[in-house]
Amino acid sequence: MSHNPTPPQQETDRLFATPREPADFRFDASVARVFPDMIRRSVPGYTTIIPMIEVITEQYVQPGSHCYDLGCSLGASTLAMRHGIPYRDCTLVGVDNSSAMIERCEHYIALDDHPLPVTLLCEDILDTPIRDASVTTLNFTLQFVAPERRAALLSRIAEGTRPGGVLILSEKIRFESAVEQDIQTRLHHEFKRANGYSDLEISQKRSAIEQVLIPETLAAHRERLLAAGFERVMVWYQCFNFVSMLAIKAS
């Protein structure tokens, strides 16, 4: 990586601003270019969750351990973890299957003035070995994994986590009650409108993403995390239909 990298150009998210042919959402180069703007305007609480990942990492990271950001995209949570790790003998790994995301992530990592090295891997997180971990992050990533493959992934993470280690899991969720689902969805859409998205943008993105982002209930997440081998699961943040959970391995 260059010692004086040029920051990648960031653009305003206008991907769904004009009528387009229906197609499933993909994390390609066009999304990578607008991703910081897209996620800030689309995910309520994202700008709170990222700095808190640093705080949680600092509380739970163990000397000589490995830390993983699975589905790291442009590296926001990777950098938060990096700044929360006080031990120079730790290893920090960011993984994403989008080459466009990893390429831009490299720039952001290089621009960050911090001595802890970061290893970036362009691969499927389902293929990433997890070993000797104290902190692992799945920040709005599991929802893009096929539902039938989620349990095995979480079990592998739990097995590779040290006693007392944690998984930070942020997800869009759905609700048991149809009434609550409607209310929370409406509030989420109002959040997007307040951030400048038009009804056309909201509708077209929802159509594009609904086949690839499969949300589940909080109860389903909690049950699966406990079954995977975590001792305690708690919600530490929620805004509308977006939550972040902390799953802790028994000491």
UniProtKB/TrEMBL annotation:
Classification via InterPro entries: CmoA, Methyltransf_25, SAM-dependent_MTases_sf
UniProt record, GO biological process: tRNA wobble uridine modification
Keyword S-adenosyl-L-methionine in record: yes
Residues reported to bind S-adenosyl-L-methionine: Y46, G71, C72, S73, D96, N97, D124, I125, N139, R206
Sequence ranges assigned to domain Methyltransferase in this UniProt record: 69-165
Keywords: S-adenosyl-L-methionine, Transferase
One term of GO molecular function: S-adenosyl-L-methionine binding
SUPFAM superfamilies xref list: S-adenosyl-L-methionine-dependent methyltransferases (SSF53335)
EC number from the UniProt entry: 2.1.3.-
Catalysed reaction equations from the record: prephenate + S-adenosyl-L-methionine = carboxy-S-adenosyl-L-methionine + 3-phenylpyruvate + H2O
Function of the molecule: Catalyzes the conversion of S-adenosyl-L-methionine (SAM) to carboxy-S-adenosyl-L-methionine (Cx-SAM).
PANTHER family in the record: CARBOXY-S-ADENOSYL-L-METHIONINE SYNTHASE, TRANS-ACONITATE 2-METHYLTRANSFERASE-RELATED
Protein name listed in UniProt: Carboxy-S-adenosyl-L-methionine synthase
Originating organism: Marinobacter profundi
Gene this chain is encoded by: cmoA
